[in-house]
Amino acid sequence: MCGIVGYIGVKPIKEILIEGLRELEYRGYDSAGIAVLQNGNFSLFKAVGKLVNLEEKAKNFESDGFSVGIGHTRWATHGKPTELNAHPHVGHNSYVVHNGIIENYQELKGMLTEEGVRFLSQTDTEVIVHLFEYRLRTEPSALEAFTKTLDQLEGAYATLLVNASLNDTIFFAKQGSPMIIGRNSEGEIFFASSDAALIGKCQEVLYLEDGHYGCATGSEIKLFNAHHHEVPLHFTPLNENKLSAQKEGYRFFMEKEIYEQSQVLIDTLMGRLRDESIYFEELDAALFDGIREIKLCACGTSYHAAMVAGYLLERHAKIRTSIEIASEFRYREPFLTPDPLFIVISQSGETADTLESLKMAKAFGLKTMVICNVDNSSMVRLADASLLTRAGIEKGVASTKAFATQVSVLWMLSLFLAGERKTLDTAEIKRQIQLLRLLPTTTKVDNDIHEQLRRLSKRYLHGHGFFFIGRDVFYPLALEGALKLKEITYLHAEGYPSGEMKHGPIALADPELFTIALLPQHKLYDKTKSNIEELSARDSTICSISPLEFDKADDHIRTQHADDYMLEFFEMMVVLQLLSMEIAVRLGNDVDMPRNLAKSVTVE
Ligand code: F6R
Questions:
Q1: Is 357 near ligand 1, meaning CB less than 6 Å away?
Q2: Does domain 246-443 have CATH number 3.40.50.10490?
Q3: pLDDT tens digit string along 254-306?
Q4: Staple partner for 424: which of 296, 352, 428, 593, CB 3.0–4.6 Å?
Q5: Distance 373 CA to ligand 1 centre (A)
Q6: Which atom of ligand 1 is nearest to the CA of 301?
Q7: Smallest Cα–Cα separation from 98: which of 120, 121, 127, 118?
Q8: Positive or negative CA dihedral for 7, 11, 15, 20?
Q9: What pTM did the predictor assign?
């Protein structure tokens, strides 16, 4: 989501850093900044919004000869998108940029504050620069101070740091977040968090591994591993294809976004999980005063997330919940009472029908909230309150990571309200918070399952239709699986509650009807199993997805044994996304830009 660039060399540095950041724009950001060190003097520019704002701020700055510099585009996760929170962050005479999360930043901040350090921003990043300067007081060299700083950081990071006393040096480190060093025959050194920013600038790149850190000057790069041993530099030629660089090695943006879910969920959960409660920095508890009902309203995939929330809000928070398709809500002359909280869900924050529904609810005097992925979007600006899903920019037209983050925010909201309304006991809230913490692991793509789906996909290219079936929250997941399949394979698919098949749809069952059956271990297993058996008995071809073996299935995708149905939900979600993608690939379709579809539907 965030982007990092760095440069050591003699060319105009401002232009190089901003050009590099422009290549990383596709990742999404809401503020940007650069810091340049020349002849021992720093120049710092930061701006909220697009890079043109940064260019405007820095328009009178020109470098002259050799300099070093670092730059960053930030997608707010910790602290609002303000200039103070934008990177680079500044110490006394050092500057730092960082991607990732410093998990123990509160503890480090506390320790440094006691030592008299004053913090300017709300970010976790700022501790890096202060800790470095604190270490510099006692360590014999800046490199040792940097090493000791890294030893104290917990979490994921890619970081660049510059210090005024070493005006030819950039310190770098990678742990869990990508970082690349590039060099060219003109002796220039580049840093970037994605090789998209390096194309056309250097011929060779070195992809840092976790635990790698070191320092670079115009003449030398020193690289160390996690055991503090110096290691040789293995540069490789840079692949010059920009689009594939933006896809970071994946074939499609959709594939990249499926694989990214595990990482973006870390961002979604960050700062929101306490031991026994959910904390939303953005929410004023007064928003819920007098609220006796929740109305959720959305379109498409976001509507499916709303349906999942319908189960969770009633189950956990014991609050009456209704779910509306925005295009229907607008024109059905709804009867509204003053006591619901009206929540719209939207990845883009711009979908016309959802936006108009929000306006209607506001005009009626309802309290409103939006769950959205895009800060500053029309819905975020209009609603009384907003919760950001923090999925980063989503490029694939078929929504994947946006859905995962929406469901996780809605799950957290159900627990937040359960806490406020005392409808779940503390032990249960605590248990579910532990489950939420497992989401990044649960959604990590299992290579064996992906390979199995790649192989299986060849059996599902024809037929007269697909039924995706499930019960409870697995019903909206079935709807979402069917929608994904339709969007990118152009095959006919329907999602159904498993128990509803015998009320009509089962008439379609024959070997050319493919049933994708969601069979979780921890939610209505026996009931769902009987429904699938009924379909199997009528010769439908069954592909079951379950941690438990199922002998009536023609194909079986075995998921992990999890402790709870919500973890099963998230793992099955990944399976369904990959299955659709692999079928679409075999059919030769454009996975990222399917026919007739647009990413943001701003017309009715
Ligand atoms: C499906 C998909 C669409 C969107 C729908 C609403 O993969 O992306 O169904 O979910 O158009 O869009 P947002 O969430 O931006 O309001």
A1: no
A2: yes
A3: 999 999 999 999 989 988 999 899 999 889 989 999 999 999 999 999 999 99
A4: 428
A5: 11
A6: 10
A7: 127
A8: negative
A9: 0.81
